[in-house]
Design brief:
Elements: H1 5-12, H2 25-30, H3 43-52, E1 66-69, E2 84-85, E3 91-95, E4 100-103, H4 116-119, H5 130-138, E5 146-151, H6 155-162, H7 165-174, H8 176-200, E6 206-210, H9 223-229, H10 231-242, E7 248-252, H11 261-266, E8 271-272, H12 281-288, E9 293-299, H13 306-320, E10 326-331, H14 337-358
Parallel strand pairs: 1-5, 5-6, 6-7, 7-8, 8-9, 9-10
Antiparallel strand pairs: 2-3, 3-4
Pfam families: URO-D (PF01208)
Keywords: Methyltransferase, Transferase
Protein name: Methyltransferase
């Protein structure tokens, strides 16, 4: 079968070069980070303890204490990240106000979902130079941090990027058998591309999987529909492949999706970073934190002084630290880097003291 024009472009790209545009999201998370020193154990090891609920030494600072593996060679968005087409032929638009991408309204890669087998061109990833891209990306990874592959555009998201959203939902009712075949093949594609990351990008400790399942009011699907039509294929990729390979699974899923926590656990998710304004942190924590971990925001308001910042961080640790299954995403005024420095300092030192007492450890840090 002939390679289509978008896959042809990917096959000819020189992935030994950096393709992300400075200032865009991929570029930001691909940048090297300063080393983190003077910790009682490796930052990586402590991060994984918090993910798995294995008595961490301190509460990890989300994103800061990890390195993100964002390959240029997996073109789930246009490469570079600007208005254009990915290797599926989906047309994306850059929205400057959010510094992010959306599918261009009216985009469709197939005329009707019932015709996806005949019309959809699946990426032939054998054409792509993952080895060159992996060597390049590895150079900027800190060996002491945890390394997380950012696996964007989950199996449901990819469906509604190919056809209008309403048609995607209607496929659950009108074409359930055909939809199952689509999701199964998409899970196989995710396994195939993720295996390339495991093979060529150095040490990979976990996978951050993106698949949005709801609005800010509720999930898109009943739990019965989710269990029947999505869960088997999410589980095939995450639990049966990623978890069996020895990596952890982080979920990014926007929406008020607490109703799917039983499904998250069944599909192998170790921790979820829920959308703050759509979810009640206390409700999630009280019901589920003994069974899985969470990454919650610490909101630092504009203009907060050092005393207020440290108080908010301590309140967070006291409130959520007890099960040893929490990570903290520090949300500060980005115009004042000093706020972030203060919050990180307090998070490390106060949570270290907190866990030393909780787990009866001696402290010399």
């Amino acid at each position: 079968m002939a390679v289509g024009k978008f896959m042809q472009r990917a096959s000819e790209r020189d992935y030994s070069k950096h393709w992300a545009i400075p200032g865009t999201f991929p570029w930001i998370i691909q940048q090297p980070k300063p080393p983190i020193t003077d910790r009682p154990i490796r930052v990586k090891d402590n991060y994984i303890r918090a993910v798995k609920g294995e008595q961490p030494y301190w509460i990890p600072c989300y994103f800061y204490e990890s390195n993100t593996i964002w390959p240029d060679a997996i073109e789930e968005h246009p490469v570079p990240e600007k208005s254009g087409y990915d290797w599926w032929g989906v047309n994306w638009e850059m929205v400057d106000s959010i510094n992010g991408m959306i599918t261009k309204p009216g985009t469709r890669t197939i005329s009707d979902f019932s015709k996806w087998k005949e019309e959809l061109e699946w990426p032939d990833i054998s054409q792509v130079d993952f080895e060159a891209d992996g060597k390049k990306i590895q150079k900027d990874l800190d060996p002491d941090r945890v390394h997380i592959y950012q696996c964007t555009e989950g199996i449901f998201e990819r469906l509604h990027e190919m056809i209008p959203f309403a048609e995607s939902l209607m496929a659950f009712y009108e074409e359930p058998e055909l939809l199952a075949e689509f999701f199964n093949k998409m899970a196989d594609y995710k396994i195939e591309t993720t295996q390339k990351v495991f093979d060529y990008y150095g040490r990979v400790d976990g996978v951050l999987y993106h698949d949005d399942w709801g609005t800010e009011r509720a999930g898109f699907f009943s739990n019965e529909m989710f269990d029947e039509q999505l869960l088997p294929y999410e589980k095939k990729f995450l639990k049966d492949f990623v978890k069996k390979s020895g990596r952890f699974v982080e979920l990014h899923s926007c929406g008020r999706n607490g109703q799917y926590l039983p499904e998250m656990i069944e599909m192998g998710v170790d921790y979820w970073n829920p959308q703050h304004r759509a979810n009640d942190y206390d409700e999630l924590f009280e019901k589920w934190n003994t069974k899985m971990s969470f990454a919650f925001d610490i909101d630092i308001p504009h203009g907060a002084d050092e005393k207020e910042i440290r108080r908010r961080v301590r309140d967070f640790v006291d409130h959520f630290g007890g099960n040893g299954r929490i990570l903290a995403s520090i949300m500060t005024d980005f115009t004042d880097p000093r706020q972030t420095d203060i919050a990180r300092d307090e998070l490390y030192h106060y949570s270290l003291e907190y866990y030393n007492k909780l787990y009866h450890r001696n402290s010399d840090h």
